[in-house]
Q: What sequence folds into this?
């Protein structure tokens, strides 16, 4: 039975995130350092062949695709957009300190959405629907290798929900320009809805 490989890669750095601001649906570009760091990784380590290339529609992800995989066709998938932080978009935790709604969100983001934004539960449901549709599409169309360039929160959610070995979402944190490769075994997917996390992406250099 044919298995499928999916590379999940976090987009390059943006200035706003480095300043500690909540940036979800806000469509900011890669920073200068973000672009340079992606090129450094590409030249020093190298990204694997992307296969079918998918991206969050936000420009920081599309631009990352263009730097990592120049010339490749990009298919955007709205389900792989970052969480919508509503009225807190562009604000930092320091600016929101003392806000009772912010405190409640920190205590339980699954049930408490930001004002005008998306709860953790709704975000996870959206992302998981998108990932399951991707697996179904790969199976139906005979796609054996795909790459998704998306956001850290999206990748952590996918791996916390489906990844083997099982781990809490924070265990799947990754730096910008890096991520994980998963293998989808059709039998295990149909039976248990799990994928095998088998490597980092790009793969770590082997010790000599």
A:
């Amino acid at each position: 039975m044919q298995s499928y490989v999916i590379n999940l890669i976090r987009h390059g750095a943006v200035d706003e995130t480095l300043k500690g601001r909540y940036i979800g649906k806000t469509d900011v570009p890669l920073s200068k350092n973000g672009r340079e760091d992606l090129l450094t990784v590409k030249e020093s380590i190298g990204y694997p062949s992307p296969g079918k290339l998918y991206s969050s529609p936000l420009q920081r992800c599309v631009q990352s695709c263009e730097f990592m995989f120049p010339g490749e066709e990009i298919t955007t998938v709205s389900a792989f957009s970052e969480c919508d932080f509503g009225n807190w978009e562009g604000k930092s935790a320091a600016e929101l300190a003392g806000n009772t709604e912010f405190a409640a969100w920190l205590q339980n983001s699954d049930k408490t959405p930001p004002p005008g934004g998306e709860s953790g539960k709704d975000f996870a449901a959206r992302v998981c629907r998108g990932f399951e549709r991707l697996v179904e599409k790969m199976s139906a169309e005979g796609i054996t290798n795909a790459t998704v360039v998306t956001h850290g929160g999206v990748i952590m959610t996918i791996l916390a929900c489906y990844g083997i070995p099982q781990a809490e979402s924070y265990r799947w944190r990754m730096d910008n320009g890096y991520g994980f490769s998963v293998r989808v075994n059709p039998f295990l997917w149909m039976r248990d809805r799990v994928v095998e996390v088998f490597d980092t992406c790009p793969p770590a250099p082997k010790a000599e």
User: Anything to note?
Assistant: Strands lie at 4-10, 52-55, 74-76, 145-150, 163-164, 179-184, 195-201.
